[in-house]
Amino acid sequence: MTAPAPASALPALFVSHGAPNMILHPSAARTFLAGLAADLPRPTAILSVSAHFAAARPTVVADPHPAMIYDFGGFEPELYRMVYPAPGDPELAGRVAEALAAAGLEPAIAARRGYDHGTWVPLKLMYPDADIPVVQLSVEPRRDPRHHWNLGRAIAGLRAEGVLVLASGSLTHNLHEAFTPTGLRPLDAPSPAWVSEFADWVAAKVAAHDVEALLDYRRAAPHAVRNHPTDEHLLPLFVALGAGGEEGLRIHDSRNFAVLAMDAYRFAS
């Protein structure tokens, strides 16, 4: 049975999920995610929008018991033994699809798809008991930020029902720059100016409620293409922006491997 919705709507969140092994090693971002749920009302369900779930049209997962997806290689063996056994919620998945269809967004429903690391890494830190149902919604890398903002606007009403919209990507995501000729940069290496300037531009535009600038980030933001050679890891931010409204706040700011900005945002209008 679904628990009563909180008296006030939950926010929509954007979090940076980092490398899969973030869950194993101490960092500011890991500590932040592990404490994030304490600042939120308990959700009735979670709608996860992961950069690692890509589709050609908005796709909602209606699997009642999603399995695990280990969508990475070369990491510590214990990562491949981790499980996140949270149930799905086919009824909620259907309502998400209905909301998207009503907005003219032509959704599809997937009967089976497991949890990729963009979903299970942050959720395993935030809600380790895995006792809250999770539904997944794809991003569409061939569509622009405005399309993803409209996706968020279509599902915004779910927040009043106690559904936590958790958009999971990376505030910056140039993996090539995370490496030097001798290997991966240290986890705590200092951040270059081209990363910090981009991250601070996003924070300033969110604080100013400048939705149009954010949606045009590839042209307007400093070093946008260098930070996002492709933009699938930032697309979840625009879903959260649409779902939560223009009242946004950066709630975490740190770096991993110098060039991965692990920033997080809370949107709640």
Protein architecture, described:
The protein has one domain (12-267): 3-Layer(aba) Sandwich (Protocatechuate 4,5-dioxygenase, Chain B), CATH 3.40.830.10. The strands form 4 sheets. The protein has a 6-stranded mixed β-sheet with strand order 5-2-6-1-12-9, sandwiched between helices. Strands 3-4 form a two-stranded parallel sheet. A hairpin with a 3-residue loop joins β10 and β11 (260-261). With 269 residues, the chain is α/β, with parallel strands linked by helices. It has helices spanning 28-36, 90-102, 117-126, 145-155, 193-207, 211-215, 217-220, 224-227, 235-244; strands at 12-16, 45-54, 59-61, 108-110, 134-139, 163-169, 179-180, 183-184, 248-252, 255-256, 260-261, 264-267.
The gist of it:
The protein has 269 residues and is α/β, with parallel strands linked by helices. Helix content is 30%, strand content 19%. It has nine helices and twelve strands.
